[in-house]
């Protein structure tokens, strides 16, 4: 599966009334650090729930009329805001962790332990 296909499939998993960040979508698709590719996939694709993908901390990153439209669409789905940001504690969608993510976390912990052992 290509990067675009897996990102689009991941975006489609976000249910109505919940939101996710560009970074979370990239991690869930198996491409940590590829938030910009999520943006590119949203621009290229049609029939995606684009309004459910936000910047870090629940910020709407679009400008002008697009930002207003995104906020109105989210409010119509029942998403609440705290100022200019979505209340992420209440509405953030948590993707299921994949085997790849677990392996990456395990590898990162092992690397950190090795660094700490050499520093002691």
Short characterization:
With 120 residues, the protein is mostly helical. It is built from six helices and four strands. It has one domain: Arc Repressor Mutant, subunit A (Orthogonal Bundle).
Structure write-up:
With 120 residues, the protein is mostly helical. The chain has helices at residues 3-12, 22-28, 35-44, 65-76, 88-91, 99-119; strands at 20-21, 53-54, 81-82, 85-86. The strands form two sheets. It has a two-stranded parallel sheet with strand order 1-2. The protein has a two-stranded antiparallel ribbon with strand order 3-4. Strand 3 and strand 4 (85-86) form a beta hairpin. The mean pLDDT is 89.
Overall geometry: globular
**Name of the CATH superfamily:** Winged helix-like DNA-binding domain superfamily/Winged helix DNA-binding domain
Mean pLDDT: 89
What pattern of helices and strands is seen along the backbone? HEHHEHEEHH
Could you estimate the helical fraction of the residues in percent? 40-55%
